[in-house]
């Protein structure tokens, strides 16, 4: 795992975006693993700007990490809507080429269908990853095994509290999600992690300097042969 020098947040975001842009330029039919969360919003803005400047995503396929259980795809807080709003509506990825798990009807079945889809697609060329305040990746929460499958999982109280900021006041934050498992995440050919802000500093320190263990699923990234971390000074404050 390679930690890039700590930078201002804009530079970390630009470096992670550049890794994706270079992948698309080098391999126009790449499979991109995509992430959601506040951290990624400015990164998608840079990808959309690159598209306006001529970069085509027309042959790319995208697979997302996760989706909340109980939210239909058109719910404003679903990751389907997030991806449409921040990326897919603004670029030329054909709708049939982008895949996000479904969480609203029969999530267990949706998870096993998503696992089969990931198997059929083959290895992700570049997996973009954020990190949860508690060290989660995707929605693989503390306690997740190294080889966990794509599945329905319970969200920790820390994750629910952190993500409550995206929901209207008083709205119920989902307590479960369909997530790509750690095994699938780690099977990507290349992983690019983006971590910005002080809230990520403890998780990043645990991931990089603590034991490789289920209590911090992001620590598993140290076992990956091609994982690069882009972090700002705030996220790296405890390193
Ligand atoms: C979310 C997502 C993750 C994301 C992480 C950080 O809940 N499931 O894929 O990387 O938590 O989110 P944020 O960038 O909003 O801090």
Descriptive account of the structure:
This is Glucosamine-6-phosphate deaminase. Residues 17-222 form the Glucosamine/galactosamine-6-phosphate isomerase domain. InterPro entries: Glc/Gal-6P_isomerase (IPR006148), Glucosamine6P_isomerase (IPR004547), Glucosamine6P_isomerase_CS (IPR018321), NagB/RpiA_transferase-like (IPR037171). Keywords: Hydrolase. There is one protein chain. This protein has one domain (2-231): Rossmann fold. The radius of gyration is 16 Å and the shape is globular. The model has no long low-confidence stretch (mean pLDDT 97). The strands form two sheets. It has a seven-stranded parallel beta sheet with strand order 1-10-9-6-2-3-5, with helices on one face. The protein contains seven helices and ten strands. The protein is an alpha/beta fold and 239 residues long. Helix 1 (9-26) crosses helix 2 (41-52). The longest helix is centred in the first third of the chain and has 18 residues, at 9-26. 2-amino-2-deoxy-6-O-phosphono-alpha-D-glucopyranose is lined by residues 35-39, 65-66, 130, 132, 138-139, 159, 163.
Present the secondary structure layout.
Elements lengths: L1 E2 L5 H18 L4 E4 L6 H12 L8 E4 L1 E3 L10 H8 L11 E2 L7 H15 L4 E4 L21 E4 L2 H7 L12 E4 L2 H5 L4 E5 L5 H9 L17 E5 L8
Parallel strand pairs: 1-10, 2-3, 2-6, 3-5, 6-9, 9-10
Antiparallel strand pairs: 4-8, 7-8
Helix pairs in contact: 1-2
- Rounded radius of gyration (Å): 16 Å
How many individual β-strands? Answer: 10
Which ions, cofactors or small ligands are bound in this entry?
2-amino-2-deoxy-6-O-phosphono-alpha-D-glucopyranose
User: Rough shape?
Assistant: globular
Total helical segments: 7
Helix content: 25-40%
Structural class: alpha/beta
Describe the largest sheet. 7 strands, parallel
- CA-to-CA gap between the ends? 15 Å
**CATH first level: which class?**
Alpha Beta
Low-confidence stretches: none
CATH architecture, by name, is: 3-Layer(aba) Sandwich
